[in-house]
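SAMPLE LOG
Freezer: B-3
Tube label: C17
Construct: single chain, 117 aa
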Amino acid sequence: QVQLVESGGGLVQPGGSLRLSCAFSGSMFSIYVMGWYRQAPGKQRELVASITSIFSGGSTNYADSVKGRFTISRDNAKNTVDLQMNSLNAEDTAVYYCNARFHQDIWGQGTQVTVSS
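STRUCTURE (predicted):
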């Protein structure tokens, strides 16, 4: 059974950086499409970034609001997917969720990111 555990959230000042990490426990990590989503208070959960499986070339996709600031990466040897977040602003404040997708969606418990001075 696949489980996802996020880490790396916290409080950061505007303009700062954070790196989120998601640990995947289970088998066949490399076939999953991995993604990071976020949900701000009163808003719907939205896709932040995703990265395809190794068999699809590991191509990435980003929400327009984070392009050029966030970078998603995966380590198929360590079964992890990271989200490097730079130039953070208040609009990035949300709970960030790791997602694994292969015929079904699997979610982590979420990690809070707060951007505030």
